[in-house]
Specification:
Number of helices: 9
Strand content: under 5%
Order of helices and strands: HHHHHHHHH
Structural class: mainly alpha
Number of strands: 0
């Protein structure tokens, strides 16, 4: 007589394996192990295209079908910075461009670069650029006017 608990376990394992192998991008988890460099490239592209969204590393790992430790290690090995540092660098680069090239408010720039607190955004921006977002904008728009 077959053990019902054993069959339930097999069905659950089959579902689990199927669910884990395919991620929203259509690649397989086995391809993450086989070719981490293409996963890192896809991850960077995804981050760059979604800077305004919540980019929690745990969610990125789910999306790309990789364990958090494996993806973090592979990213650091490939890029020589952590995923979180990369996200922050990209967001700050976008913020600096928006401050230079747009008339968007600091609040709008904050929200468009994935920060939910203008205070935190300003502190982080100041740490990265040595001046507040307002000072940065004034300095860079004055330079443009002189050069124009």
């Amino acid at each position: 007589m077959p053990n019902l608990n054993e069959n339930k376990g097999r069905s659950a394992n089959k579902r689990k394996n199927t669910e884990l192998k395919t991620n929203p991008l259509g690649s397989t988890k086995s391809s993450v192990g086989a070719d981490l460099s293409s996963t890192i490239l896809a991850l960077k592209s995804f981050i760059d295209a979604n800077l305004q969204k919540d980019l929690a590393v745990s969610r990125l790992c789910l999306r790309f079908g990789a364990s958090e430790s494996k993806l973090k290690q592979a990213f650091i090995k490939s890029e020589e910075i952590s995923i979180t540092e990369y996200i922050q660098q990209q967001r700050m680069a976008l913020a600096s461009e928006l401050l230079k090239d747009s008339q968007m408010s600091i609040l709008d720039i904050c929200q468009n670069t994935g920060y939910f607190s203008p205070t935190s955004f300003s502190k982080l921006f100041s740490r990265n650029f040595g001046m507040s977002p307002n000072e940065y904008r004034k300095k860079n728009t004055q330079v443009k006017r002189v050069n124009a």
